[in-house]
Amino acid sequence: MPKVIDHDQRRREIVEVAKKLIAEGGFEAATMRSIVTAAGFANGALKHYFDGKDGIIAATFQSVLQETERRVSTLDPGATPLEALHGFVEAAMPLDSHRITSARVLLVLWEHSVANPELARQYRELLTMWRAELTTRISAVLGDVPSDAPTVGVLADEIISVTIGANVASLMHPVGELVVRYNAYIDGLMKRIAG
């Protein structure tokens, strides 16, 4: 009886290998040969799961974006509006080694997405979703200010910009070195919005 192979699981394994290679050595480190070797597959086996390197890179990019979305979506539904906003911002910041590694992979793939319209589209969609969610959460904290008010949009754009900047800056420091500063920023931001 032939062995049953879970193709989706194999794709996830390949993506995890690609993430690790990219995090450790950049985009150039994730060659088809290095991926197949690190995944423990025979030469040519990747073609059963992906059309080529672009398919692996697109799946890797999507995986990192989905990890961020999952962190955000698992927030406590019973939280106060301020707690919900705090949790949302915290989920996108590089506050642990896993998120810092994800930021490293995302940063490498951002550069690649400049020349890849599909990756650029996925990232724009994520930013659009983040901004919409942030404006909703900020508006809920403010109470009587609608989510489409200019002040709410400015705060949402600030948070997105700081989050992106924090992810980039975290790559230039030893893992976790900036966590105290980032938590202080989040706490100060919450006081500013609530107060």
Automatic annotation (TrEMBL):
InterPro entries: BetI_C, Homeodomain-like_sf, HTH-type_TetR-like_transc_reg, HTH_TetR, Tet_transcr_reg_TetR-rel_C_sf. Gene3D superfamilies: Tetracycline Repressor, domain 2. SUPFAM superfamilies: Homeodomain-like, Tetracyclin repressor-like, C-terminal domain. It comes from the Bacteria. Residues 8-68 form the HTH tetR-type domain. GO terms for molecular function: DNA-binding transcription factor activity; transcription cis-regulatory region binding. It holds the Pfam family TetR_N. This is AcrR family transcriptional regulator. The lineage of its organism: Bacteria, Bacillati, Actinomycetota, Actinomycetes, Pseudonocardiales.
